[in-house]
Design a protein that fits this description.
- Helices cover 6% and strands 63% of the residues.
- It has 113 residues and is mainly beta.
- Strands 1-6-2-5-3-4 form a 6-stranded antiparallel sheet, with no helix packed on it.
- A hairpin with a 2-residue loop joins strand 3 and strand 4 (60-67).
- The longest helix is centred in the N-terminal third of the chain and has 7 residues, at 2-8.
- It starts with a helix and ends in an 8-residue tail after the last strand.
Length: 113
């Protein structure tokens, strides 16, 4: 299973990292995306308690996913959407949120069989 995850998620469309309540990821051009991988810097502790992932598509922000924790790694899957930007909004955390990795991916449906 680990090898399959590496195969599907070894080449992100875009990645970033940072601290704070909001983090934005900009793509070079609008692209189809259907997965996001989030990794928290757990050397500082698992701080994030509630978050929301949004996409900028069609001139507005739309919610793609909501979650309650990230920890070492969280893979969020959602319907394919063409977008130019993604952002994560930290709704609740114990201290300053520290995102080690925020990456966007497109995984073709054929890869799920």
């Amino acid at each position: 299973m680990g090898d399959e995850i590496k195969r599907r998620f070894s080449n992100p469309l875009a990645s970033t990292n940072g601290k704070g309540n909001r983090l934005e990821l900009r793509l070079k051009e609008p692209m189809e995306v259907n997965h996001v991988i989030l990794r928290e810097d757990i050397t500082k502790g698992e701080r994030i308690r509630n978050y929301q992932i949004e996409a900028y598509s069609g001139g507005r922000w739309v919610t793609l996913a909501n979650g309650e924790s990230i920890g070492n790694k969280r893979i969020e899957k959602f319907d394919t959407i063409k977008l130019s930007r993604l952002r994560i909004k930290i709704i609740d955390s114990d201290g300053l949120a520290q995102i080690k990795d925020f990456s966007a991916y497109f995984v073709a449906e054929k890869d799920f069989k």
